[in-house]
Each structure stands twice: as structure tokens, then as C-alpha cells.
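chain below, 454 aa
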Amino acid sequence: MRYIPHTESEVREMLAVIGAASVKALFEPIPHDVRHEDLLALPGGLGEADVRRIVEALARRNGGGDEAISFVGGGVYAHHIPSAVGHLLMRSEFYTSYTPYQPEISQGTLQSIFEFQTMIASLLGTDVANASLYDGSTAMTEAIRMSMRCTRRSRAVLAGGVHPEYVAVATTSLHAFDDPLVHTPLNATGGADLDAVRSTVDGQTACLVLQQPSFFGAVEDVHAFADIAHAAGALLVVVVTDATAFGLLEAPGLQGADIVCGEGQAIGVPPGFGGPHVGLMGTSAKWLRQLPGRLVGQATDGSGEIGYVLTLSTREQHIRREKATSNICTNQGLMALASTITMALLGPAGLRQMAEESHAAAVSLRRRLAALPGFSLPLGEGPIYHEFVVATPAPANEVVRQLADRDIAAGLPLGAFGASLGAPPNAAIDHWLLINTTELHRPEDHDRLVAALA
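prediction:
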């Protein structure tokens, strides 16, 4: 840390050495008529994110800084990351360690993973959470494979609204199976069609995969889909692309989800060019031994001291290949550590505030954009978290191109995804723009976007 304040005991010790009665006594040589005895009229304290914005604005007056703003989401999100995260993350004990094979020399890494698992399990509402998954898309694929092992079935039903790139990864990874993925359409609000799912899930279904919120931002009724899956003897897999949503929404594990998986990037990891990210997965204790990757547990040594060990390692590197649950060969420990530090600094109250501000900003911006001439909400005004779809008067990719010239990344044009979105047949998706806003956006950012679109 760049600044470490003195404790009261240290101050007393220093005063005793120099023979002063108090800190105030040190200023006695200064004439009283030139002293300012009252408190300075300083403004109230600001949050770290607000201070950063002010400093960046000052930097731009010197020709530096970045004036661009982004409303792009679609699976990668920019939330506030406390500055302490970078300081702690870059300690050499963490960023030079590879993987915790030897617990006697890896206690710090093992403890951080253990705490990551504990926090993620609490956030997702599951009994247990693992570590070492690559990202959200591969985590979803691993969850489908896990469901197949648990149920001894080989078919997964993908509800409408699952991220199309996640679906593409699962399709590639599961290509050796005989048509394992069955798709159901969207409903009118951008979520999964409950009736279509009910008529598709059957006794051959290993799992029903549902995204919460959906790729289009719609908040799903997890309870209803859990009932459908369980009635057929299948598992419910809930996928999340921004886990900050559960600062506001009820955790899927508490709503009947058997496996909760997805992406942890939004908590503590800045957006990058495709990564690195950190995959999440939690499940009930019943399916513990089918978890892929690693599981760190807490134990005690011969002296009764707490120690951390790899309790479960079901990768093919550790056990016979035919017994392995996964061939995952990574330790996203550094990214998991970033998420852990962020969650520890924010706490439940901070995470909820982040989620509430993101949600309120999205609802407000959606209302303003819908009022613009030529713009509309093709999926209506149903419940959302912090992302929504707006229909633009011109093709969305052209709108994005024009606003890029004004240093505004207006959103994610959905036309490029084509039929893989599972949108209604007559939907003009070339005009659909997916817009995201978080607690980092300020009213003036929204003003700028609305003015540019108008």
C-alpha cells in the first residue's frame, strides 16, 4: 500500500521519544493569528469509483485519459474493481505460483481457493462450489457432462435465451454424442418459453439448461423450470453470465437448481480481449463427487493447526482416465483470487448496492430509449437485471458504427448471431441492439448515449 497511517499507540510512542504532550503541542511554535483552527470547508467523502472518474476528467484536460464510454455487455461486463485488488493480486506469492499440488508449500494459494469456493457457494446458493474452470461457456459444457453422469442419460434441453456462444461451445464439445442438444424457443419477453420446455423435457433428458437472466436480459422464474426438470427426473442447470445479479436476485440454488454454473469475470476481473476469465460451478452435496476440476478442503494437521488440501481432484491428471470427470487442466487461481478479494471488500451489502444501482440504471435508460422516435422495445418491458434489447430504426450494426465515431460503444448488434438466437421467426433481429449499463455509468453517460441516438 502506498500510504499506511500510524496507529494511536505508535503516535504515543513517538511523542514520548520527542518529549511532546500531544500532536497539538507540536504546533505551538506557530503563531495563533496565522492558524486556521476551524475545520476546512471540504466536500463530503466520495466512493473510490467516483474519485477515479474525477481524476480521469482532470487528466483529460491535460490531453490524457479516455473519453470513450461503452454499453456493450453480452457476457462480459465492466463493474467497479477496488484498487486494492490489483495491489494484492500482484504480490509475487500469488502471481508466480502455478498450481497447488504440494499443500506444504501452497497454503496461501489453497486458502484463497477455499475462500473463493465458500463465497461462490454462498452467492449461487449451493452446498459446494469448485475451482479451476476456464470460463462461462466451458463451465456450462462441464455442467451438461456432469448431468449426464449423474442421471445416466445423454440428452440436454437448452431453454431459449441461453448465450449463443455458450451453445456453440457446448455443440463443439459434445459433438461425439448422438444429437445431445435439443433447443426450445424464446417467449415474447426474451426468456425461455415455459410451455415449449414442458413439452420437450422427457424421461430421456439429463438436464434442462436455463440462463438467469437470459442472454436478452429477461429475469426467469427458476422455480417453474426446476419443477419441470425434476418431474421428468432431470437436473436443472442454471447458467449465469454476470454473477453480480445475485446481489439482487434470489440465488438459483435456493430456487431448485441442481447445478449453477457460468462466468465470474464481472466480479473483480476487468474486461479483456476474450479473457482471462474464471468459470463458476456449484452444486448440491448429493452430486459432490461428480464435480469436475478441483475442490479444496480445510483440514487439521498433527498439531491441530488448520491446513488446506486438495480434497477432490477428479481430473485425468490425478486419477485413471476412465474414472476422471473432466480433462480440465487449468488453475484459474489468479482470476479466482481477484474475485475473492473483490467479494471480501464489497461484502453482501456492497454487492447488493452494486446490483441495485446497475438495475436502476438499466430500467431508467430503457424507458428513455423507448421514447425516442423510431426506437422500440421488441421484447417488451418485462423484468430485467441490467441488460435489455432495443430495436433501432436503422440496422443495429450501422447505428453502432456511427456512434463509434463519437467514442460511444452503443451496444451489441444481435444480427450477427442470426438464427442461433432462437428469436421469433418474424423478428427483425438485424435491428436489435443489446444494451448493458452498470453502476459505473453516470446520468451524463446516459444523456450522451440518448442524445447520440436521437
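The mean pLDDT is 90. The first strand starts at residue 69 and ends at 70.
thats it, cya
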